[in-house]
Amino acid sequence: MENRVIGAFKANQVIALSIATLLFLAAIVNAVMNAGFLGIPVITFSVLAIFLASIILWLFVAIDWPSVLCLIALGFLPNMTYGAIFKESFGNATFVFLFFTFIVTYALEQTLFLKRVSSWAINSAWAQVSPWRFIFAFLSVMLLISTFVSPTILFMIAFPIYEEIVQQFGFEKGNKQASKILIALFSTIAIGTAMTPINHVFAITAMGLYETSQGVGLSNGDYMSFAVPAGLVIFSILLISLKFIWRLDLSEVTLSKVASLEDLPKADKKEKRVVSIFMFVIFLWLMPELLGFLLPGIASFLKTAGIAFPPMIGTLLLAVTSVDGKPIIKLQDAIAKGVFWPSLLIVAATLSLGSVLSMPEMGVISLIEAFLTPLISGLSPLLMVTVFLLWAGIQTNFSSNLVAASVVSTIAITVVTSMGDAQSIWQF
Q1: Using CA atoms, how far apart are residues 397 and 190, in angstroms rounded to an integer?
Q2: Which of 220, 238, 266 is the last residue of a domain?
């Protein structure tokens, strides 16, 4: 069975590679012969071929080298230079933001702070009163941590705690109640990840695409003013459904403290300084929206500096602050171990691709106006948003959140920009 799955996966990769290759070849032949395939202008056909080939490779092959291939291909387009491509990709503030955020978060992950916060919630006297309070405390602290930690890293921390909890509850392997708790844990981490753009690549990528296309930046505060309330509502629905729809049965559970989170050593100087610097970075991100009225000059500077400035300051502080004669982090190690380069590569490629798609001279917007606008012009802003939300929700079941956000955001922004009433949709 496993061999069949692997074989099918490899077959899909071969098919994807073949289709992508044909698209690139068609673009080259079309450009050299000036053939005007499908009645589409040559440059527009080339842009669409690069776009479709990149999506196919991202979905079915990988996100690293196809992103590099996408950047190379974009540089061959007429009137495009690699200087412009690099400015929109590796030189983009979104790319810089993610690079430094990875480093700052890596420093935090090397401490016991996340386990300490988990222990404070799960082993508290309040949580130990009843199994339902315990589950609420467990999921709530995971929701909190997931707002500023990568979901992959968090799950590596949360899963051992989950295993210890179900063992403590007396749930044997395959127990339905244990499965329900695991699904709730997955869902909680997903909800928390969507609530802030801090260390969450897909949210930052979508925000970067919007800024590149519209020339207007979205701050962390703008994002969170909508996402945090929405996330809390969805989390509340999850808890209610866990009790009344999934009917999680905790009647036979005997509570005790999670042993692995007990007797943690006291926070040392290094951990305290890392946490202080991390909190300072978050403060700089949120300060313009939260306290801008008190310090308008500083708030104005932070807004002008952009979202990449706070983690850049945090990285500098981590590198120059010493504990016991040693720097908190060595940048070389942090860059090697803490920065997830495949994500950065697809972000760079997506930002450049989104910028090219939105250029009037590339003809993509004109093409959409001619073919798609008549079909969607009658849709209300609410229905338009619903269509793209459903698309994104469905695609995340078949591809990574980053690929889904990149593809859907790029197409949504291009489609809406091509419409005459685009402003009303953005305002909605």
Answers
A1: 12
A2: 266
